[in-house]
Amino acid sequence: MTRGRLVLGLLALAVLGGPAPAAADAFLPHPPGAQWTYVWTDTTYNPQGTLETVTVPAATRPAKCGWQLAWTGVRSGSGGAAPASAPDTGTMCFRDESFGLLNSSWSGSLPPSSEPGLCAPGPGTACANSLGSVLYDVIWGGRSPVLSEPLLQGLSWGSKGGADGSVSSTNAYLGLRRVAVPAFPHGVTAAVVRSEITLAGTPGDDYGSGTRTTWWVRGVGPVRLEFDHVDGSVTRAELQSTNQVPAPVLPDQDFFPLRLGLKGTYRWTNAKHLRTPEVETVKVAAVVNRSARITARSVSGPLRAAGDYVFSDQLDGLRTTYGSTAAATLITFPHLGHRRHFFTPVDLMTYGFNPVLPPYPVPGTVIRSGNARDFRAFGVTGKTRILGLRTVSVPAGRFRALEVRSVLSQRGSPFGSGVRTMWFAAGRGLVKLIFAHRDHSTSVVTLVR
After folding, report:
1. What is the pLDDT of residues 316-360, one digit of tens each?
2. Which of 146, 257, 298, 374 has its CA 20 to 30 A from that of 43?
């Protein structure tokens, strides 16, 4: 039996002739001097509304807090129970992570006095939960993350919120939609996220629970929010003005979905080294947050191969973080350096360097080798270019697929060097791969079903 094992590192993106690499602050930028003005209302607890201004403060807290936003406004009475000019001020801290936007802490004035208590009753403990400002509504039910990224079609995630984690949410990305708000009266393209939020064990359970829809604009932040509470109240917020400019809209197709149970059967041939076709199934066997375990197993052919891999899909792109492959075969492939082996279609797809795909695969994006850990694992140099959408036909059907071409060079190994072209279909993943090796052989992988 021949065995191969790999552990891969992270590669920074180099982008030529395209947008800058995706960043965690794309949907909530915080440059010095940034400013947003919102009006928010609640049909029960703030019917007259609040004009609220959010800014990036000049002075920031220690680094552990991340970065800050500050807000100020004046409430105009809340259902007849609050003072006519109740204060509305506060600060909120965020961090930009590879998996998206995280809320770390906040401090603010008390919510409207008529707002139901959103903490479990207890002696001598002040309640830090509130829905008395736009930013409180944005983070309610989900602080880690507030927004999971990259935002790709089919994405859903769970999160916790509240000062003590007592609020839970399930969140789903609904896609890109045009929306008109006072700040953008002619409309702007927003990423729409719907959240089902649950609060339990407090006097305000029915107010703290419900369905929230948030419209996020890249380069600006949230521009609209609607929270339909279980008790019948409705909170609405809209962006009135801002000095931030919408960023270009990036494609949101998921060309390699980490969806539990997704399975494909592939046929791999190489007329010189693998004359009898190898047929294998590749399956997403387990999913946790934005990581997945993928298995590859032989169905028929000469390799009797098995592979296990871990993939992560975050703002540093789709990458492999672990892989282990084995095969029982009499076939001897040409030498590959660094103790590499090609036993499965996944081996051929991930060979070289990370990431396999950038987070938002814009045509013209170039990924270059250069990460030290990747080089120790593979010894491969080269670059990958995103070419764009092409129509390809394989036994499984006809697909409009993203074409990705890599030029790979492994010193001393013609078989490990050459040009690899891959095609990925949105919602399905890899559908075709051609690796033209420098030893004058060609590996061809196609999706059968």
Report:
1. 999 999 999 999 998 889 999 998 999 999 999 999 999 999 999
2. 146
Amino acid at residue number 127: C
The tokens describing 328, both together, are 């029982």
Calpha distance 383→366 (Å, rounded):
7
Q: Residue 38 and residue 244: Cα distance in Å, rounded?
A: 14
User: From the centroid of its chain, how far is CA 129?
Assistant: 27
Please, what's the b/e burial string for 359-396 (b: 16 or more CB within 10 A of its CB; e: otherwise)? bbbbeebebbbebeebbebbbbbbbbbbbebeebebeb
Contact 51, 29 (CB under 8 A): no
Cβ-proximal residues to 243 (8 Å cutoff; 6+ apart), any chain: 33, 34, 35
Residue 424 tokens read as 């990925």
C-alpha to C-alpha distance for 346 and 297, rounded to whole angstroms:
11
Please state whether the peptide bond connecting residue 355 to the residue before it is cis, i.e. omega within 30 degrees of 0: yes
At 94, is the pLDDT very low, low, confident or very high (cuts 50, 70, 90)? very high
Enumerate residues 6+ apart whose C-beta is below 8 A from 122: none
**Residues found in the chain:** 449
